[in-house]
TrEMBL record:
Protein origin, superkingdom: Bacteria
Identification of the protein by name: DUF1428 domain-containing protein
Matches recorded under SUPFAM superfamilies: Dimeric alpha+beta barrel
InterPro entries: Dimeric_a/b-barrel, DUF1428
Length: 122
């Protein structure tokens, strides 16, 4: 089965994790409603700074923050582009003020990925 993945990494203040979870649950429902196959949000548990780069360094993590790693799975890039266009117009997300988000979007990074190896346990 062919598929396409969007990946996201961002810093979330520890005291805003519950707010972020609430936003993520809503966002996940919206992406799935428009056709995404999977939606995942993960809180860093064993993520250490590296010597050259790492998740904490990539988002310029502050002492009172934690890294979130997220991904969304789609049937194809074409489907992803269509779904994301619909999501961005959805009034549940479109009207959000970036200043009210429970994270610093300027330190978030993301991208689309074509799978090259995909395996699951039998």
């Amino acid at each position: 089965m062919a598929f396409y993945v969007d990946g996201f990494v961002l810093p979330v203040p520890r005291d805003k994790v519950d707010d972020y979870k609430k936003l993520a649950r809503m966002a996940g429902k919206i992406w799935l409603q428009y056709g995404a196959l999977e939606y995942h949000e993960c809180l860093a548990d064993d993520v250490q700074p590296g010597k050259v780069t790492s998740f904490p360094q990539a988002v310029k993590l502050k002492p009172d923050e934690v890294v979130v790693f997220s991904w969304i799975v789609y049937k194809s890039r074409r489907q992803r582009d269509k779904i994301n266009a619909q999501v961005m117009k959805d009034p549940r997300l479109a009207g959000m003020d970036p200043k009210s988000l429970p994270f610093d979007g300027k330190r978030m990074f993301w991208g689309g990925f074509k799978p090259i190896v995909s395996m699951t346990a039998e």
